[in-house]
Write a structure and sequence with these properties.
The chain has about 150 residues and is an alpha/beta fold. Helix content is about 40%, strand content about 15%. The chain is built from five helices and five strands. It has a five-stranded parallel sheet with strand order 2-1-3-4-5, with helices on both faces. Helix 1 crosses helix 5 and helix 2 runs parallel beside helix 3. It starts with 8 loop residues before the first strand and ends in an 8-residue tail after the last helix. The mean pLDDT is about 85.
């Protein structure tokens, strides 16, 4: 049996219902070891740069994986992705887009910006369970992630 790694998952999504469903799906798939949430792109960047209410590393640990919604207020996910992948301190954090968008332009643009995976949010909780199970297996059991550099 492959041992699952303990990795902080940072979920950036403005929809409270989606955040709850993602949390429940991760928890049901035993991936709820440390899940952090932000509600918009500005909060995401503040978290990653440890600004404001995210300044304490003990309360806002460096994520090993980011689940990113594209359509968020204040700063959208596309802008955040571009900033993340251009920043030497955080560009190695894998980013998975998890969004309602099915636009081919979003798929191409996010891959060009350096996203690691693009997933369209499923409609049902059962489908979300399946996706999070597969994500967990792939990202936390199969691949090697970079060690956190605080």
């Amino acid at each position: 049996m492959i041992k699952k790694k303990s990795v902080v998952i940072l979920v950036a999504d403005d929809d409270a219902d989606d955040r709850l469903m993602i949390f429940e799906a991760l928890k049901e798939n035993h991936l709820a070891n440390d899940i952090q949430f932000v509600e918009n792109g500005e909060e995401l960047m503040d978290y990653l740069h440890r600004k404001g209410k995210y300044s304490d590393p003990a309360k806002s640990p460096r994520p090993g994986l980011i689940l990113l919604d594209l359509n968020m207020p204040k700063k959208d996910g596309r802008e955040c992705l571009k900033e993340i992948k251009q920043n030497q301190q955080i560009k190695d954090i894998p980013v998975i887009v998890l969004t309602t968008s099915k636009a081919e332009e979003d798929v191409y643009r996010t891959y060009n910006l350096g996203v690691n995976s693009f997933i369209t949010k499923p409609v049902t909780f059962e489908a979300l369970l399946s996706i999070t199970r597969d994500l967990g297996r792939y990202w936390f059991e199969i691949v090697e992630l970079p060690k956190s550099a605080e």
